[in-house]
Specification:
The protein is of the alpha/beta class. About 30% of the residues lie in helices and about 25% in strands. Strands 6-7-8-3-9-10 form a six-stranded mixed β-sheet, with helices on both faces. A hairpin with a 2-residue loop joins strand 1 and strand 2. The model has no long low-confidence stretch (mean pLDDT about 90).
Length: about 270
């Protein structure tokens, strides 16, 4: 579907989101009264100082945590009604993650790292290999498929993390300080990947403390003390204009799991 048509459809609705934590006899209010709507095809940056609640909000959006109160709807589906298993399956098939520290398994090669979400979804072995080959080739990482994460540069490790995030063709890509451990040029390459995926229609939400990086998105939400204090468009978004040392096939990357059926089997 065309990106401008996607923008007409609501992907995420948050109403009155609260997240409280008990620390001894003290209650910490990480989020309170958060209302937020994200439409399909948006590229949103979430910003705020340390302790503002931006990471807590990202974890709730990514179904890694549950809110204490309020309503979270994803395509009109109320996620609080899902049990833990249902929420886990929903997260694995619908949301992709790219973290600052990559969160890769260092004792296995990149094929096995990228394969994990497919195994959790019971995708058959032949389809797993097809998708893995496609996504690694799209990211210029196919010739390093036998390497472990410790044998990769930071930029290469983040590409593997992105490959894993996209292997199930998610509806939403969440990025938590994705360029924080990278040099400026490599960070720009990763930013361009996000921009190109968004141009093709993928919804991207990125947490960052970097004002300059946020200017590559199309909308900036600012949090302070657990509430949204500002929410507005980026008037003239920057373009990550950088040549890749290892070429990227964006169309293949965006559609890695499409037109293949669900490829599921009962047991592996």
């Amino acid at each position: 579907m065309e990106p401008n048509r996607l923008a007409e459809r609501i992907l995420i609705e948050l109403q009155g989101i609260e997240r409280f934590f008990r620390m001894g006899e003290t209650t910490v209010k990480a989020l309170h009264g958060v209302d937020l709507t994200v439409r399909e095809g948006e590229f949103v940056s979430i910003m705020g100082p340390s302790g503002s609640g931006k990471s807590t909000l990202l974890y709730i959006l990514g179904c890694l945590d549950r809110q204490t109160g309020g309503c979270y709807r994803f395509r009109k589906r109320e996620l609080m009604k899902l049990n833990d298993r249902e929420l886990s399956l929903f997260r694995n098939s619908t949301i992709g993650f790219a973290f600052q520290s990559f969160n890769l398994l260092n004792n296995v090669n990149i094929v096995h790292n990228v394969e994990l979400p497919l195994i959790y979804c019971n995708v058959v072995r032949a389809e797993r290999r097809r998708r893995i080959d496609r996504v690694l080739k799209a990211l210029g990482m196919y010739d390093k498929r036998s390497h472990t994460p410790l044998q990769l540069s930071g930029g290469q490790a983040q590409r593997v993390a992105i490959a894993r995030a996209l292997i199930n063709t998610p509806d939403l890509l969440l990025a938590d300080e994705p360029t924080g451990n990278l040099d400026s040029r490599t960070g720009l390459e990763i930013t361009r990947i996000f921009q190109e995926l968004n141009r093709l229609g993928m919804t991207v939400i990125m947490v960052t403390h970097n004002d300059h990086l946020a200017q590559y998105s199309k909308r900036i939400i600012k949090l302070r003390d657990g509430t949204i204090v500002d929410d507005g468009p980026v008037e003239d978004p920057l373009t990550a204009d950088v040549e890749f040392a290892e070429p990227v096939d964006f169309a293949a990357l965006y559609s890695v799991g499409l037109n293949a059926g669900n490829g599921q089997e009962a047991a592996l």
